[in-house]
Amino acid sequence: MIPSTISTLIAIPILGVLVIVQSSIVSRIPLIQGTPDLVLLAILAWTLQKKADTAWQWCIIGSLMVTLVSALPLGAVFVGYGLATAIALALRRRIWQIPLLAMFTVTFLGTVILHGVSWLALWLVGIPIPALESLNLITLPGILLNLLLAIPAYGLLHELANWIYPEELEV
Amino acid sequence: MNPSTIRTVQTVVFILIAVGIIALALGGYLTPLSRIVLFPAINAQSWLTNRFQTVQVLLSAPQDTTRLRQENAELQLEVSRLQSQVIELQQQLTETSILSALVDFARANPENRYQAAAVIGYDTSPFLRYVLINRGSDDALRRGMPVVTQQGLIGRIDAVTATAARIQLITDAASTVNVRLEPTEAQAILNGQITGDLILEMIPQDSNIQTGDLVMTSGLGGGYPPNILIGQISGIRSQAQDLFQRATVQPVVDFSQLEIVLVITNFQPIDIEPLIPTPES
After folding, report:
1. Which of A84, A131, A169, B157 is 20 to 30 A from B92 in CA distance terms?
2. Of B121, B127, B173, which has the smallest distance from its Cβ to A69's Cβ?
3. Which of B123, B126, B166 sits opposite A142 (nearest CB)?
């Protein structure tokens, strides 16, 4: 089986478990009102792996799973995760030599974008949420928690990438 | 005297001497003598026994250590098993007490039919306040059914699958509940907030509301059945120039500790949207 197929297939149990953990544990223990987004972190960390060529597959699978359990307006999760993945891919091409810096940058930008898209989608369906309040209570704590978890997420996904795409020895 | 007679006499004499010694011993007359004779013997035997036991312990010690370690491991395993059993039983006890309270609530409100369900998750988005339960359309749950705990109202079903359902909590920013206040009978609208607080709006200025007044569903709008407790007024914001008063509500339900909930299955929500006049009409 070719590595890209394996990496797409393995996304299903990994992201599935992360959605379950997110819903049953992480969402119950917020910091102020913000929570880390494990699925976003996994997608971003996978996208930043140099050898990984299935970033969009991970993005779509993750979005689909989160959409199934979340009451966010349809499409908001796809747009949010999609934009975050696009930014991560763009950054990977430019600063992939410093992966941790790239991970911190895309985590920050990805969280802001995802929350911005969520806020906008809720506003469009007639649920006005005070912008400043949501920034202070949800987005800033969420960014902090995501940044704290960014390094372990990157490390774990890096190991997974090394396992799926082993180094080829030149003879 | 022939030899057999001599042996018989000797035997009788020996027996008499033996009986005599035994009689003297039983009478305590030989104690000083026996002490003198037995003391060195007892000491020697004690010394020998001690040395033997020491050697025996020395030789059998490794086996004992192994056995003790094995026993220790077994006991630790037993302790762990018992500890997990205790935790499991405590959990069962908690669940039983919750179920008991829910049964009491259901008995106190016999006009409704209930379906108990366990909360299995929260919405992944921090902007929303929804919970997932482990009952769905297979258990006759439908969209719009109100959900309560033994304390009071928590929300209503927003989406249903065959085996699960999603509940919009009354603390969600998009939630609106028509309520009445006790004892003033004033009508108001209860809105959720992004912070998880509950705000009462549209309270008439002439209503003399007080902190501690009860907030209950009014049944207006057809979204919820009437007379379900929600909470108490915890603060009032009233200004003379405003058309309405506002108030904060302390809910009776702890929304961070939801475990088991009751869905009211015999309540049919009424969609009054077609009856609301639009600017076009």
Report:
1. B157
2. B121
3. B126
Q: CATH: 1.10.1760, 1.10.10, 1.10.1040, 1.10.287. Which one for A3-164? A: 1.10.1760
CATH number, position B129: 2.40.10.350
Please determine, for residue A171, whether its predicted confidence score (pLDDT) is greater than 70: no
How far from the centroid of its chain's Cα atoms is residue B155's Cα?
Answer: 25
Q: Which residues of A touch B167 (CB under 8 A)?
A: none
Q: Do B126 and A127 touch (CB under 8 A)?
A: no
Residues B253 and B123 in one domain: yes
With a cut of 0.85, is the ipTM above it? yes
Residue A142: is its pLDDT beyond 60?
yes
Task: Name the closest residue on chain A to residue B176, using Cα atoms.
Answer: A127
Domain count of the fold of chain B: 2
Q: Among B126, B130, B196, whose Cβ lies nearest the Cβ of A71? A: B130
Write out the residue range of the structural domain in which residue B223 sits: 114-269
> Cβ of B159 under 8 Å from any chain A Cβ?
yes
Asked if residue B77 is part of any domain, the answer here is no
- Give residue B41's Cα distance to chain centre: 68
Distances in Å between the Cα of B195 and the Cα atoms of A32, A135, B199 are 9, 12, 11
Write the pLDDT tens digit of every residue in A72-85: 998 899 999 999 99
